[in-house]
From TrEMBL:
Gene3D superfamilies the UniProt entry points to: 1.50.10.10
The keyword Hydrolase belongs to this UniProt entry's keyword annotation: yes
Catalytic residue list: 120
Keywords: Carbohydrate metabolism, Cellulose degradation, Glycosidase, Hydrolase, Polysaccharide degradation, Signal
Catalytic activity, as annotated: Endohydrolysis of (1->4)-beta-D-glucosidic linkages in cellulose, lichenin and cereal beta-D-glucans
Organism this protein belongs to: Banduia mediterranea
PROSITE patterns: GLYCOSYL_HYDROL_F8, PROKAR_LIPOPROTEIN
Protein name: Glucanase
Length: 389
């Protein structure tokens, strides 16, 4: 009997030790987020794009909310939200959608430069607020998030002959005659699933169906464009303004597809870009989507954004090459590089850092999206109740 009790005690102690180790692992700080916050997030919550005349955008504030939630950094989350509310939405995010661009005007004063909202930022803001309400048990966030989502439906979703579709913004994207201009990177599938679950009477599932039908018409070479046009008679067409190029917007299409569990927009439907990565070893900056002609360099952030996409395609060698490149170019605050530590590149560019937080954060298991689009974070995954919410 004594031997049995000793054995049971040993098992219990091992289980507790393993549990504590798991909790320690789950609670480790996200160094890449901390580095981003040091460089790009002001104490008042403004996220500054220092590579673009120190401007701020609703996209930057929305992404900042998401990353702060993933990092369990509620103080910074609240600061980012307050700055967006006071400076992009006239003090009330439940009453108006945030302006997309804030910065220094021609007269030298700082403020809103373009009040037109950006629908991708609006959806990311709504998503991050609604999930913050659930994960942090803070209902006030949900009220704001649902108000934003309602305004997206009212002002940024239109009915086309092909079905409902998300406009990039309420103004400026109508084309003559009777056409529209769309951005495929504005619609992550996991996010649309989430809104369809949370707002079942909304247009979200139908929007996704319209989007995938249109995108299929402009990806004959399995390469995503930055923009495309749609007309009732001709259907989806290559964008004339950007000459059918896939670049800084399109890279997010591959990123979202790679992070979505069991996607209907499978990475294999866009594997033309993977073939181009094989040719160079690195993701190309610009691709002509019909001919696969490539141009430009190989931005660091593109290597990060490609990680989930390459993972989904089982491109292990290409994945390892991107990870190696990122580690070699990550500058830690203590002067030592390494995965998830410090800023990416010197100097650090805003968009590179954002793509790295998404791509590297996902690969490192900082976050995942469930089948219904709900956010799963490392910090909420714990045992013994030590770090449970």
């Amino acid at each position: 009997m004594r031997k049995v009790l000793v054995g049971l005690v040993a098992i219990v102690l091992l289980a507790i030790g393993a549990c504590l180790a798991m909790n320690w692992y789950a609670a480790r700080p996200w160094k890449a987020w901390q580095a981003f916050a040091r460089v790009f997030v002001q104490p008042d919550g403004r996220i500054v794009d220092r590579t673009a005349n120190a401007r701020s955008t609703s996209e930057g504030q929305a992404y900042g909310l998401f990353f702060a939630l993933v990092a369990n950094d509620r103080q910074v989350f609240d600061a980012i939200l307050a700055w967006a509310r006071d400076n992009l939405a006239g003090g009330d995010l439940t009453g108006s959608l945030p302006a997309w661009l804030w910065g220094q005007g021609d007269d030298g004063t700082w403020g809103v430069i373009d009040a037109n909202p950006a629908s991708d930022a609006d959806l990311w803001m709504a998503y991050s607020l609604m999930e913050a309400a659930r994960l942090w048990d803070a209902p006030r966030y949900e009220e704001i998030g649902r108000a934003i989502l309602w305004r997206v439906k009212a002002h940024e979703v239109i009915d086309t002959a092909a079905g409902p579709m998300l406009l990039p913004a309420p103004e400026g994207f109508a084309l003559k005659p009777n056409g529209w201009r769309f951005n495929p990177s504005y619609l992550p599938e996991f996010q649309i699933r989430y809104f369809a679950m949370e707002d079942p009477s909304g247009p979200w599932s139908r929007v996704w169906g319209t989007y995938t039908d249109m995108l299929a018409q402009v990806t004959p070479a399995k390469v995503a464009p930055d923009w495309f046009e749609w007309y009732p008679e001709q259907g989806a067409q290559q964008d004339r303004k950007t000459a059918g190029i896939g670049s800084y917007d399109a890279i997010r299409v591959y990123l979202w597809a790679g992070m979505t569990p069991q996607p209907t927009l499978s990475p294999s439907m866009l594997d033309g870009y993977a073939e181009l990565i094989r040719m160079r070893g690195l993701p190309p900056e610009q691709v002509q989507v019909t001919t696969r002609g490539i141009n430009g360099g190989n931005p660091l952030g593109f290597s990060a954004a490609a990680l989930p996409y390459l993972h989904a395609l089982n491109e292990d060698r290409l994945l390892e090459r991107q990870e190696k490149r990122l580690i070699e170019n990550r500058i830690a605050a203590d002067g030592e590089g390494g995965a998830e530590s410090g800023s990416l590149g010197d100097p650090a560019h805003y968009y590179d850092q954002v793509l790295a937080l998404f791509g590297e954060g996902w690969v490192a298991g900082r976050f995942r999206f469930g089948d219904n689009g709900q956010l799963e974070t490392r910090w909420e995954q714990s045992c013994c109740g030590v770090f449970s919410r």
